[in-house]
Design goal:
Four copies of one chain form a homotetramer. Chain A is α/β, with parallel strands linked by helices. Chain A has one domain (2-179): Flavodoxin domain (Rossmann fold). The first copy, chain A, contains five helices and five strands, in the order βαβαβαβαβα. In chain A, α1 (15-27) links the parallel β1 (2-7) and β2 (34-39). In chain A, α1 (15-27) crosses α5. Chain A starts with a strand and ends in a 16-residue tail after the last helix.
Chain lengths: 183, 183, 183, 183
């Protein structure tokens, strides 16, 4: 299995990256997956270049992932422009079939709804599937990151297991899966 | 498997109900599930009564479902107050573990984002899992309902299958699944 | 000038009502306005009746207001179904020209974005004008209500004054003000 | 009076820019204002530079405007990452007191809710005041731009006039206008 972390902080090696890494570590079985980390801070000079082989390769890597965590600090109650600029490079449905987890970090709870009301709908618009609420992490809780990320991971794991149960009862897709927008 | 349809139209037996029924029929394997339909138009007199045995029973039925479709006509660009009033009766995380599909019907595409940006986050707030975009159906397309619902169902089936693949690689939840809000 | 408060709490005489009253008192010049309070808890039995003379009169009263405060406790991260059911009774653009302030109360900051991302767009969809952020009040701060509402009122007053400055430079509407949806 | 247009299209001199220009022309009295246009396509190389004198000057110009139009093509149902990256450079409340109009252009009505549910709350988070719905323009209607923008402008003018009426009845701000977040 392949997993990818995309970090939208304009500053490299951020706490937001650490939060996403911990969440993946808690969620997936050790040794069962390949993980790639894309720190968008390393790519700001090319994020608006078009075309760009380097950016295209990064976009493809994420689109081919089974699981992708999109992590951003909270800027103006929402995800960063840097993360959005990366996602803007996809065509319609560019993340079709990817299981995606939206993560925001922030100073306090004021913008705790952000990953659920802003980032999740954006990922879903691209065709990704979001298995539950977005994960919001208060930056001052880094000492408790293991425990908090562990609880979130347990909830995502539980949700995924439930979805797997429903999947077993769906009709064999007589119609080939359409990638056109539902709406 | 148990499936439930909850219809938020104050008028009974609406087209919105028909749209939801067709979506379920296209999504699930025939004969593999029990379906209950809750037409909230039949319960407006008790929707604000507290406590209410009848409403509690309906709430419980939905919460115990494997799959629930929540369908509403578009009122003021969003779900109806009637549907929200039903969902308001749940405690926090009252739909934990339920796979939920948000459906809006509307006159044209103007409010096509509604089920994805309004109803989906509401269901997710209650702990439900939404396997993709919301389904928006233009009411004037009833003659093509079978085909359009079939395409949406195929996309949901495809998404659920992908999620099942990811579920197989999650860690056995060392931490018991927390039902407390992630955020 | 006429001002109206609409409270969406299914329980009458709530703290949410008190919060809205204090906000209006801090915002408007004493003695310069008539205030009517509509506590929707008193009207649950008719909120889904159609037609209803009583509800129509309430709807009209709000639509004719210069200023209306819409106040709701936070239910599932958003406004209540009761408040939405009241607003659903309006035709398109039913609140055209009304200056509207969205107010949510809640237990902590987790859902502080609610009045800005959920209630404000709903009021705007109805043609109302929202002069700034929604006002979110943490219920445990009732002892500091005067001060907190005073600060919010000062910000709204400042915003309204700024808007008045811009209004002076708009073209005489050669086209009669359209009430059809912008979008 | 000063007005500014900020265009978030990564391609310069776009139709989105033309739409915003026409809206301003229809809204404001001829000869009564200075207009500056900031085409962010000209600044992609510095948008993530920190600090940047050039970007700081642009940010300041917009923050000092009486009226600012923020215009973006629809990317993934929302504003572009480029526009968000520009807005991310502001501190909290960086657009306090600015009257701001959100504009999206798009191929059809599917994402017509975008400027109202995505861009408007973002501008409001920064302290700006949005006098009504966002303006969504279907790109194929360029031949009717004058008329469509004229109707939207008339509605904004009408809204601003109403707000001016309310402003006259607000209390002299006993508390100095707070720039701290209401929520």
């Amino acid at each position: 299995m392949t997993a990818t972390i995309v970090v939208g902080n304009p500053k490299p090696k951020s706490r937001t990256l650490k939060v996403a890494e911990t969440l993946v570590e808690k969620l997936l079985t050790h040794g069962s997956y390949d993980l790639e980390i894309i720190d968008l801070a390393d790519h700001t000079s090319e994020i608006f270049a078009w075309p760009s082989e380097r950016m295209a390769a990064l976009n493809a890597r994420v689109a081919e992932s089974d699981l992708a965590v999109f992590a951003s600090p909270t800027y103006k109650a929402s995800y960063t422009g840097l993360l959005k600029a990366f996602l803007d490079r996809y065509p319609a449905n560019g993340l079709a079939g990817v299981t995606a987890i939206p993560v925001h970090t922030g100073g306090d709870l004021t913008h705790a709804m952000g990953p659920t009301v802003n980032l999740a709908p954006l990922l879903v618009e691209l065709g990704a599937i979001v298995p539950g609420r977005g994960f919001y992490f208060v930056a001052g809780q880094m000492d408790h990151l293991d425990q908090i990320a562990g609880q979130a991971a347990a909830e995502y794991a539980s949700n995924l297991a439930r979805l797997a149960g429903v999947a077993a009862h769906t009709r064999a897709a007589a119609v080939a899966p359409s990638l056109s927008p539902l709406a």
